Amino acid sequence: MNGGIPFLPQSASSVAGEFDVLFAALLAIALAMLGLVFLLMFRFCAHYRRSNRAVDRTGREKKSWHWEVGWTAGSLIVFLGLYAWGADLYLREHRPPAEATDIYVVGKQWMWKIEHLDGQREINALHVAVGRPVRLVMASQDVIHGFFVPAFRLKQDVVPGRYVTLWFDPDRIGVYRLYCSQFCGTDHAAMDGMVSVMSSGDFQKWLAANATGGSLASRGAALFRRLGCSGCHAPASGVAAPDLAGLYGRRVALRGGGAALADEGFIRDAILEPAKRPPAGYPTVMPSFAGQLDEEQIVALLAYIKALPRSPQ
Amino acid sequence: MSDRVLEKQFADLAHQSETAELGMWGFIATEVLFLGGLFVAYSFYRYLHPAGVAAAASHTRLVIGSVNTAVLLTSSFLMSWASLAASNGEGRRAARLIWGAAGLGLVFLALKGLEYAEEIGERLWPGAAFSLDTPEPRVGEVFYFLYWVMTGIHALHLLIGVAALAAIGWRAHGGVYSRAYHSPVRVVSLYWHFVDIVWIFLFALIYLPGRSA
Amino acid sequence: MTVTTVAELPHERGGSYLTDGTTLASWLLTRDHKRIAILYTLTITAFFFIGGAAAAVIRLNLLTPEGTLVDAETYNRIFTLHGVVMVWLFLVPSIPTTFGNFLIPLMLGAKDLAFPRLNLLSWYLFVASGLIVLAGLIGGSVDTGWTFYEPLSSGYASGALVVVLLGIFVNGFSSILTGLNFVVSIHRLRAPGLTWYRLPIFCWSNYATAVIMMLATPVLAVTLMLVAVEHLWGVGVFDPTHGGDPLLFQHMFWFYSHPAVYIMILPGMGVISEIVPAFARKRLFGYHFVAWSSVAIAVVGFLVWGHHMFVAGESVYAALVFSFLSFIVAVPSAIKVFNWLATLHKGAISFEAPMLYALGFILLFTIGGLTGLFVATLAFDVHATATYFVVAHFHYIMVGGMVSAYFAALHFWWPKATGRLYPESWARFAAILIFFGFNLTFFPQFILGYLGMPRRYHAYPPEFQVWNVLSSAGASVLAAAYLLPLFYLGWSLWRGARAPANPWGATGLEWQTPSPPPSGNFARTPRISRPPYDYPEPAA
């Protein structure tokens, strides 16, 4: 940020460029319509001011139908075009590419805690490599927060009780502001940070320098044993409990009919509210871990379960 | 008598009566939206947790609920009759019928009070002391929360209705109403029927889930 | 319209509605819709200045990036107060309870509204609600914002929140009863010959507003009641730690609060539809379209609430539908703007203060409405929502639009209601000052939002300072401009020239009565036989 007056935000994601074109179109259309309104008003007020007796006021337009249909249709066509464009970009913003790397984010009053799969942890900062798409899996410890990076033109509210995702493809090296965008209490304005987009080499160096000795999944594995989950869920246990290997992404038949996709939310619910969507064919003996785990611990367990390889069968 | 009640913005009593009724219909429309919000919240939870809601609902007292339903339906019948009587100028009969309906309303409230007392005794009042022996007690707690709110608001409306009935019953007894002027009876009667219809919906949503098994 | 029996009541001893009864009781127990309108005017003016004082603190705090004028918690309480007071204690009641109450019976040719005692009750409920709300906001620490999002409001807010919610609940009843009164009156109390298509657009607009008040407000009441009960007993309808869903709160809250913005703007549009024909001396262009556009806005306005939740976690399919409908709801507003402009064409236009405010409304509302298209655009809203872009958008409509319309109405009907003429030069000066002050305050906020400055921030990164300083400078001009009318309108009550029955030469039944009108409005019920806005055609 130099000393000049800022008008436009930086652009640093794959969608920012297209976003700015959409913005320019919106601006052009808005200025055209505003210009039309202003010019007509100015012209009519000047030309037809009462003191101007010379102007011809006879022959006033009586029928309004063709005008009404005309400007209504015109407005509608323009509006629907804008709608379609905005909707299309929005849909693409909700379809992460398959090769996106997951990074976990836990928002809490009043900080962002970032967890990389390899175990690096950050607070109010996010380091990523340029050109490598990232999928943020986000949870809130308490109230609704908002993860907002203006340079990416992306924002997602982080709602407690569920996981939300946001994907981006950073395409310019630099450091960009991160804000909390959903009012979350006293220090809402202090919950900002920086997203650092680095070259591939620099990112590798950063990862190495910030390693914590264990990946997120290994932290999850340790929790899995400490909390006694392996007591039931290990293949060799005598208890009828679902085998978690390869669970993530599978469709699970539910007791009482129907099926659910075992995504992050499903796994979280199974840990905290096992009676909510119980799988078919298993008795209800799993205890709830609600109140015993914070969001970061659940994220670690999630990373562990997601990383479990499919069983050889 | 009629001159005293005709307000200056109306052309005649008929005009005033029609307007009053339209006003009550309008008010009922707003009440439908008010309760509609609660029904939406209820439906949302029932859709997401059908088993949990059914299990919680089986702890409601079907006998008291059914008796109360019969009580209210009877009271509505009495009010319809009262409306007819008032329009015929039969003030004394109308008063008896109106007070009968009000009395039944009080019976409803008394039974509801008994029901509430039992449920509080069983720790079905939401909060730290809540306890429910079903597989999904948290869903049950939300169900009971909505139960207390919805039936509580209904009971409040019923109480206001009883007061209104008592007042117009007194005026009917005094011979105020006639063929030309009986719109207050019609208007209050409309309100009373509405409260009754709301109860029928509540009965179905609160007492009946899970019972058909 | 020509009234076949013009009934100018001779001023009785005592004279008009203002002088019929001079005791405090005659005012506080009045059933006269005109006196109730005056009571409301005094009350909402007080609330406007309270909300405005909060805005002043906000803009002063935002002069510096560190935002140290007040601490974070105080700042959060102040923007909460600003929002709650301005929305429920000023904007929602503004034109309906003041000019609606005063004018609708006159425009209908009636002696009063359908339910005068209910009208007085509405005012008492309103005053009570204001006192309760202020007690909670000032006496306790409520810092959730006017939107009370869950679970912040039930799990993390102080007990004073319940007091504020109770106040808003009571306020809702006031709103609902006023709406009921208007709907029934417009249906039932129209004078003979006054068909729907002969009604002034002000009546159509207030009718549509009243329908929204009746149908949307109860949902707010129930939603806030659930929040209060949840806060007090800790059971989750909305709180996820108790099995509730925060998004259910947002759906229920916005189901009211989006139509609420139409409650706030439709009456203003009705005012503009009265003023433009009067000062252009020309029939309103496209009367039927303008009339039905109010109804269309009311109906479609109930279907777009999800556009406040595009990044909240609602499904993409819901977002697609809500965005589409949000574009549709913009169309009837555009229709109104084009019709107002077409009314100017071949008119004979003069530029007294009401017209200046009306022209300002058209420009500022157009800007606000066009930026509404921006935020209705899904991908754009992902970036702009929860930033100052949205703040600027809604202030252009609410303040640039609605407050301008309120001032337009105030000046247009001031002679009728008070019997006095205000000083025209001062009024024009204030109108122009407001226009410039307003743009200086809020236009920089579009830029701030696009740059990414989030809303509800008491402090911000230094690169945003220049725009914030411009905005605060504008706010000081706006504040001065809003205070001016207090002085010259007040002065006119004491020293202004006496107003004739129809100082503007406008059509409309209200101009057929003396200024100020007698308590009974019309000695004999008028009979209508001409279309509305029946200005004479110019000679060839």
What does this structure look like?
The complex is a heterotrimer of chains A (313), B (213) and C (540). Chain A has 7 helices and 12 strands. With 313 residues, chain A is an alpha+beta fold. In chain A, helix 1 runs antiparallel to helix 2 and helix 4 packs across helix 7. Chain A starts with 15 loop residues before the first helix and ends in a 6-residue tail after the last helix. The relative contact order of chain A is 0.12. Chain B is built from 7 helices and no strands. Chain B starts with a helix and ends in a 6-residue tail after the last helix. The mean pLDDT of chain B is 90. The radius of gyration of chain B is 20 Å and the shape is elongated. Chain C is mainly alpha-helical. Chain C has one domain: Cytochrome c oxidase-like, subunit I domain (Cytochrome C Oxidase, Chain A, Up-down Bundle), CATH 1.20.210.10. The two termini of chain C are 22 Å apart. The relative contact order of chain C is 0.13. Chains in contact: A-B, A-C, B-C.
Number of domains of chain B: 1
Number of β-strand runs of chain B: 0
The biggest sheet of chain B amounts to: none
Assign the CATH topology of chain C: Cytochrome C Oxidase, Chain A
The low-confidence parts of chain C are 1-14
* Class by alpha and beta content of chain B: mainly alpha
* Broad shape of chain C: globular
Number of helices of chain B: 7
Q: What is the percentage of strand-forming residues of chain C?
A: under 5%
Unreliable runs of chain B, pLDDT <50, ≥5 residues?
none
CATH architecture of chain C, please? Up-down Bundle
Mean pLDDT of chain B: 90
In helices, the fraction of residues of chain B equals over 70%
